[in-house]
Write a structure and sequence with these properties.
The protein is mainly α and 290 residues long. The chain contains 16 helices and no strands. Pfam families: Ank_2. This is Ankyrin repeat protein.
Length: 290
């Protein structure tokens, strides 16, 4: 269904929401009703603050708030396939909300993952937002990625030809990237000519960027010289006194240098030495002597 039709349905849903609220709350266990009233009040307040001709659907806001008990009631009243003005579906909102889920905790312990489980069988996981992103591209945790993968195409591209793996990198989500590695094309390029590794090296947060690059570097088979150049740039961007931050990139540089051209390896070594690193990379030193 096209977004214009969906927005019409969303508007009708919001008009009916006030009368539905009471029925939804009364259907809940007595001990949960007060919390549900507070949650719905938050939803209403948010909708009123941002109200325009294309307000977000109630179920979308509920998915974002990660309240599985309330959401399980709302799906009985509202169509979970509705999208907002940007083409976002409740499933996308739930997938994004899992970024608050602890990766080291069981999926069952996360309210946001529970919301995703509620919505998944009722939704189209391959629905696209206005920018071409699917729910998998919004996954905020490995739990979400593992739930969505069986019914999603990990190699799908958005309007900028970015894959789910690239979005995991740009969102600084190493656990999500790890869940996607086996089913993704690591060498795929966006419309900017950048791979997931290039994004990790060029835009990654310091700690997450290093972890992501360490995951991706051994699997990259093309554009190694370019990636090595980016890795050295990430290293030399650190303050001179921050040796630990600089040295954290050494394994990535070593891995890429071992497969880069001799010229690229020598150039990288020259920049490393210019920073007076405590220990010259053994791989780079070996390459420079060839």
């Amino acid at each position: 269904m096209r977004n214009t039709q969906l927005r019409t349905k969303v508007g009708a849903e919001l008009q009916a929401a006030a009368s539905v609220d009471t029925a939804v709350i009364e259907a809940l266990p007595e001990e949960s009703r007060e919390q549900a009233r507070a949650t719905l009040a938050k939803i209403r307040e948010k909708q009123q603050a941002t109200r325009n001709d294309e307000p977000p659907p109630t179920i979308f806001a509920a998915a974002s708030l990660a309240d599985p008990l309330l959401l399980s009631e709302l799906v009985r009243h509202f169509d979970p396939r509705l999208a907002d003005s940007d083409g976002w579906t409740p499933l996308m909102a739930a997938a994004r909300a899992t970024l608050l889920a602890r990766e080291d905790a069981p999926a069952e312990a996360s309210p946001s993952v529970q919301c995703l489980k509620i919505l998944l069988p009722l939704s189209d996981p391959m629905a696209e937002s206005s920018s071409g992103r699917t729910a998998l591209m919004f996954a905020g945790s490995a739990h979400a990625a593992n739930l969505l993968l069986p019914v999603s195409d990990p190699k799908a591209r958005d309007e900028r030809r970015r894959t789910a793996l690239m979005h995991a990198v740009l969102d600084n989500r190493p656990a999500v990237a790890a869940a996607l590695l086996a089913v993704s094309n690591v060498d795929a390029e966006s419309d900017e000519g950048a791979t997931a590794l290039d994004y990790a090296l060029g835009f990654g947060h310091r700690r997450a960027g290093v972890k992501l690059a360490e995951l991706l570097a051994p699997l990259a088979t093309s554009g190694i010289d370019q990636s090595l150049e980016l890795a050295v740039a990430a290293t030399t961007s650190k303050a001179a006194e921050d040796a630990a931050a600089r040295n954290s990139w050494r394994p990535v540089v070593d891995e890429l240098a071992s497969r880069a051209s001799a010229g690229a390896a020598k150039a990288a070594l020259a920049k490393f030495r210019a920073l007076d690193f405590p220990k010259t990379s053994s791989v780079l030193a070996k390459r420079s002597n060839n």
